């Protein structure tokens, strides 16, 4: 039995519907303990503020760091502490409100590492991408069958080759309320199909 195997590629565009906000609290002091205490105080403000926009289990510490600070001449000038946190929001608008509230409540001790806009429920997008990938495989196989003077028969084997997601844009902190534009992102699928040739 003659067969032909092809890999089809499909893509579906979706609008991000959730966000991951990565921030940090910073504090400089002459001593290690004071630097850590200041960073922790600011981190508690971040946590309290974030708690008004999302549930506690979606707020997590990602790292705590402390290092020696130096002046412009390279001389020791106390210590800096940094407490980094990740906050997951169910909605892009919620993330926008969170950033504005953090700017107001934490002030100069706040640093925004970035905002990743994501697709929380990828099922529908992946379904559409998979259908497009299979249709692409049929088209490719039909063309190859024609090139060898045959007709495309029934599929003998179908293997899904995985999918990839593309996440979009980051936002940085501004003095005014932050506007986050969700835009679009692509969900991709790859399907390998073996067809009988008649």
How would you sum up this structure, described in words?
The structure is a single chain. The protein is elongated. Residues 163-177 have low confidence and may be disordered. The N and C termini lie close together (9 Å). The longest helix has 25 residues, at 123-147. Helix 1 packs antiparallel against helix 2. It folds into 2 domains: 3-15 and 121-197, 2-Layer Sandwich (Translation Initiation Factor IF3); 18-118, 2-Layer Sandwich (Alpha-Beta Plaits). It contains 3 helices and 7 strands; from the N terminus they run E-E-H-E-E-H-E-H-E-E. The protein is α+β, with helices and mostly antiparallel strands and 198 residues long. The strands form 2 sheets. A 4-stranded antiparallel beta sheet has the order 3-4-2-5.
List keywords for this structure.
alpha+beta; single chain; Alpha-Beta Plaits; three-stranded antiparallel beta sheet; four-stranded antiparallel beta sheet; 198 residues; 3 helices; Translation Initiation Factor IF3
Nutshell version of this structure?
30% of the residues lie in helices and 43% in strands. It is an alpha+beta fold and 198 residues long.
């Amino acid at each position: 039995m003659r067969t032909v195997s092809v890999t089809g590629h499909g893509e579906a565009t979706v609008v991000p519907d959730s966000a991951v906000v990565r921030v940090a609290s910073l504090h400089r002091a002459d001593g290690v303990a004071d630097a850590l205490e200041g960073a922790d105080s600011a981190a508690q403000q971040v946590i309290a503020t974030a708690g008004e926009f999302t549930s506690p289990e979606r707020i997590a510490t990602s790292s705590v760091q402390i290092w020696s600070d130096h002046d412009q001449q390279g001389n020791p000038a106390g210590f800096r502490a940094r407490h980094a946190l990740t906050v997951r929001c169910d909605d892009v608008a919620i993330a926008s409100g969170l950033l504005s509230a953090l700017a107001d409540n934490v002030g100069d001790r706040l640093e925004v590492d970035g905002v990743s806009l994501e697709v929380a429920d990828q099922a529908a997008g992946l379904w559409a991408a998979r259908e497009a990938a299979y249709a692409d495989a049929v088209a490719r196989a039909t063309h190859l069958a024609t090139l060898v003077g045959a007709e495309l028969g029934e599929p003998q084997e179908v293997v899904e080759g995985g999918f990839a997601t593309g996440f979009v844009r980051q936002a940085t902190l501004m003095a005014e309320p932050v506007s986050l534009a969700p835009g679009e992102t692509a969900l991709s699928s790859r399907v390998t199909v073996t067809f009988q040739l008649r």
